Structure formats: C-alpha cells, structure tokens
Amino acid sequence: MEYLERRVEMVNDRLEAVVKSVEPDELAEQLGHVSLAGGKRVRPTVTLLVCEAVGGDPADAVDFAVGVELVHNASLVIDDIIDRSDLRRGSSSAWAEYGYGPAILASDGLLGEAFALFSSEEQAMQVVAESMVELGEGEATELVAQPTNEEEYMELARRKTGALFRAAAEVGAVAGGADPFAVESFGEYAERVGIAFQIRDDVLDATADADELGKPAGQDEVMERPSLVQITDLTPEEADGRAHAQSQAALDALDATDVPDSAAREYLRDLAEFVVVRER
C-alpha cells in the first residue's frame, strides 16, 4: 500500500498548493472545503498509474491528475445542489456550508483551476473537454430524460461516470508519451472501471448505512434518481453481477494495451477488481 500512498500524497500535496494559490482567500477556503476534505482520489491515481504503466514519470502527470480531481469535485458540488444533499464525505456539502451562490462559484473556481493545469498540453485539454461534454449531457439526461431500461442506464453511466474515468486514464497516457492505440485502450479500461464504480454506487446507496458511506443512503429512491436497482427488476446481487461484467471488460482492455508487467499495471488490475467489492 505504501506504493499507492506515495502517489496519493503527490496528488494531495499538489492539490493543496493549487488551492492555496487561489484568490481571494474566501474562494480558496471554499475550494479547500470541497477538495481537501478527503475522497478516495481514484481518478487522479488512475492518471498517475497509467502514466507509469506506459513508461512515464508520475511527476509529469501530477498536474493532469489534480486537474481531473478538480473537475470531479466541481461536478460533486453541482450534484449536491441538485440533490439537496447536505452531506459529502462525512462533512457538510458546499451549498450547505456556504449557500447556493458561493457553492456555484466554488464549482466554477474548481473548473478554472483544472483547465489552467491542462493548458500546457493541447491533447489533454481536448480529452478533458470532451469528457465534460459527456458528463454534462449525462447529468442533463438524468434530469429530463431518465432511462427506463438497462440499456439506457448503461449509456447514462458511461456519460455520467465513465467519461471522466476515461479522461483520467487518457491524460495519464498522454503524459507518459503513449501511442494512440495505448491511449485508446487505457481509456476503454478506465471507462469500464467507471461504469462498474457507478453500478456499485447504486447498490451501496440501496443497501449500505449512511455512516458507512459518509453521505446519505437511499438518496436514489428519495430523489427518484435512475439507479440500476431502481429502474430494473434486478436485485442488488444481480446489479453487482453487472458491475463484475464491466470489471472484466476493463481487465480485457488493460490486457489489450500490451504494456509490460509493472507495479503500476498490477495496481490498475487491482483497481478494476476492487471497485466492485468496495463498501463505501
């Protein structure tokens, strides 16, 4: 675990430095409340691991990793406003702590800082911009044209969660100097991990305790949000089976990258297997 902890520490150190540089101080405080309050750092870790797996130095990818995390956090701020959720990662959500206006400004600030970090590399900027289009369309779909069957749900999960996972992997591959095929294959791996992650989130929302999750449970049903469990006749166990299928597809895509064995590659395999058994 020390291997992963060092990489998460790289992300956290750079993230803290970015937040501290923000002006005015009030905005820096709000960005810090959102982004420094914890979190699994799964997406930025994927960025660093993919960079290493293709032979790059993780230090060359840390800005992209932090940028991905900032985009993710910006989306969470908006999610919490839409859902009227007053808890995030065991602490008050941004809107509950500061009000709606400051929370929206904090989301904007997070995105601004993220794109400043991507601005040094045109391909990385394009990758993340495309993922944000997908994310935005996914969020809008969830509000106005909710899926009614499993196929439509999977497309929503791809846009809402898988797209940013894909971007996290692809910018890591770009930072590591990977060829286009490897960039695409790692993107496919991560998109599948993201979909599995989202399905497991749905299952946990339906079955777990709020104290274990660090956020309210049962929100999908309360908010009439289209989780896989809510819109199909699948049991939580069957939904977990769908997550496992996505995990296997991720492992197949990882194998297709044909990069040599390494600690980074092994941890990417572990991640694809872990996201479907996690408890929070």
Automatic annotation (TrEMBL):
Signal peptide: none annotated. It comes from the Archaea. The keyword Metal-binding applies. PROSITE patterns: POLYPRENYL_SYNTHASE_1, POLYPRENYL_SYNTHASE_2. Keywords: Isomerase, Isoprene biosynthesis, Magnesium, Metal-binding, Transferase. InterPro entries: Isoprenoid_synthase_dom_sf, Polyprenyl_synt, Polyprenyl_synt_CS. Its cofactor is Mg(2+). GO terms for biological process: isoprenoid biosynthetic process. It holds the Pfam family polyprenyl_synt. This is Isopentenyl pyrophosphate isomerase. PANTHER family: FARNESYL DIPHOSPHATE SYNTHASE (PTHR43281). The keyword Transport does not apply. Belongs to the FPP/GGPP synthase family. GO terms for molecular function: isomerase activity; metal ion binding; prenyltransferase activity.
